[in-house]
Amino acid sequence: MIEVATHLERWELSEPFVTARDANTHVPVLVVQLTGPRGHRGWAEAAGVDYDGETPESMASQVAAVRNALHDRLSGAELLDLLPAGGARNALDCALWDLRAKETGSPVWKLAGLAAPQPVTTAFTIGLGDEQEVRRKAQQSLAYPLLKLKVDAERHVGLVRIVREVHPAARVIVDANQGWTRDLLERLLPELHRLGVEMVEQPVRRGADATLDGLRSPLPIAADESCTDRHSLAGLAGRYQSINIKLDKCGGLTEALAMCAEARRLGLGLMVGNMCGTSLAMAPAFLVAQACSVTDLDGPLLQRLDRRHAIRFEGGVMHEPDPALWG
User: What angle do CA 233, 241, 152 make, to 5 degrees?
Assistant: First the structure.
């Protein structure tokens, strides 16, 4: 039987991208390690979905509840029936992929039937703040060609103008984090389009997606919180133009790859994101990024330290993870 071990970690976010007013300056994560019958070990990390109440402790409890079901020939497809979508299943699924790679001597991309991965450009996130904070963070982000700017119902277009002033060459996407209404979105879209914003992420609250029916937008609207696993996609098609796949939300690489196929069938564009974490959390998502037009895997760039064999980032360009890290 596969042996499973879990432990909890806290990773510190870095300056100057956090401020004294930020409520959370650490990223708590769950680490899962699986040991196969021949002693090979696979591991993975999950931060969970905090807005759904997930914590490392709650995820560890979910893993413990299925410990006795983790047999030697366990597959990712079986995990879909053992646990619901979320961080616990993500950690187990990605650790299982890593274990199988170690056991077979083949990289995960081959095991999954994918092409050899290539470097991708990741967005770099500028968190929500006042104008002075956003200006400072934009100045610290000049090395990154793609920026994701967090906004809300009061702070939005003005912040985009500041980013454009400080870093005019940057590509910009805007994340409203469910903070807008249909009316506000329609009022802001023309100016966002004029400022060259390439995408708006989750403008309306989860559950209010029907308010987007009939919207004629000059730029793509992406579903984030409203997008969970593949079963959520049918309700998003026609309302959003793209989806943001996060492994912690959908419950692992196995489901993420299935989501890519289903999204293509429905005519939805693809973005891959993260709930923050170290290079270990980003490594499986890097394979999903190969199919995506937008990549947002900057978790390690927002933290003070990273793991051994960390993913190499060069000016926003993310390189293939070292197999010594994962996969």
Answer: 100
Alpha helices in 171-327 (DSSP H): 182-194, 247-250, 253-266, 279-289
Tell me what pLDDT residue 26 has.
Answer: 85
User: Do 313 and 21 form a contact (C-beta atoms < 8 A)?
Assistant: no
pLDDT at 20: 46
Q: Are 123 and 285 in contact (CB under 8 A)?
A: no
Distance in angstroms (rounded) separating the CA atoms of residues 318 and 283: 10
Give whole-number Cα distances, 34 to 41, 176, 198, 256, 322, in Å. 6, 38, 41, 21, 19
Please report, for the chain, how many H helices and E strands are present, in that order.
Answer: 10, 14
Mean pLDDT by 10 residues, the chain (327 residues): 93 69 78 96 97 95 95 93 97 98 97 97 95 94 97 94 97 97 97 98 97 96 97 97 98 98 98 97 98 97 95 96 97
Beta strands in 154-236 (DSSP E): 171-175, 197-201, 221-223
CA distances in angstroms from 213 to 104, 225, 226, 236, listed in the order given? 48, 17, 15, 10
Residues 124 and 134: their CA atoms lie apart, in Å, by 13
